[in-house]
Amino acid sequence: MVTQEVPCISRCLEEAHSLDEFSTSYKEVLNTSDMKKSEVSGVMAKADIKPKSIYHAKKWSDDVENLYRFQQAGYRDEVEYKQVKQVDMVECWPETGFVKKLQRRDNTFYYYDKQRECEDKEVHKVKVYVY
Fold this sequence. Notes:
34% of the residues lie in helices and 11% in strands.
């Protein structure tokens, strides 16, 4: 089995080892079995995954709200945003979990409120991608 070392993580871990802050290996850091949903979508973003199917939302939900925000900024969803912008995390409101800030492709920013922004009349315009 061939393993490939991630230079940035291993370098950071070597620095931490030298400082005796903690002891762990980069393999432990990259363990995907206990990752959260946002971390898994980050891994998906690096894999350049394309959606298999698409449908329009019928009813508002938290996920539809976040998709609405990504699509307003010019992306199909969080996966595409992470692929294009090369980011690991998207800023979210801690109270609601909704997206807080997105950077468009032309490098301008969209800032969103804590409350719902996708009105009922806009819900049917939101595209939901299936991977």
